Amino acid sequence: MKRKIVRIDEEKCNGCGLCVTACHEGAIQMINGKAKLVNEDYCDGLGACLPVCPTGAIEIIEVERNTNTIHHEHETHVESNSQQLLPCGCPGSMEQTIQRTSVEHRQDLEQQEHPHVESQLTNWPIQFKLINPYAKFLQDSHLLIAADCVAYAYANLHQEFIKGRKTIIGCPKLDELDLYYEKFLEILKNNTIKSITVLKMEVPCCNGIAMMVKQAMLEAKTIVPYSEITISIDGKIIQD
Question: Does pTM surpass 0.70?
């Protein structure tokens, strides 16, 4: 299976660095005064860097999906500065699958007078802007697409909704829905998704996240079991 990535023409690159700032995935770095795609795995292929390039040095190409090639001449640089190559250049954005406590141990905790409530989150990152559409944890997953504010309004979010699902969160009012749409389209096209649950607040702006998901499903021709839940500001389920 093929996937899209960017290719940078070094001859055309003038070293302005605008593409580095525009890349949400941290896939592009300035090396020796030129922009370089330092790791193809981090490139989401959406081309946010294209419109900011003043010289037209960037184009979208297709490569085999399992490519994991780092430019040979920069291997030493990459190994000694590996944290710079994480999405958005931030070590906290590294793709992770989180192992959770066994069922037996959780039952023991529940029998205690003041049991510890364990997180059910099993993937990282979770922010839409940071998610790589080709992240391994997305394959064969049940997805939870949640508005940011839900976590603060609904107390039992982890046990009722995050448990057993891979979580992606975002704010349809403060972020760019077009970016969400393009990224979610890539997720649907390049992964086998088993189900999608959308969790949103009752405020009107939150409807955008549900509309985005449904439109992407139609364009990708990927119809899977879908549920949409609305949470009230006072923390109740008002529509399921």
Answer: no
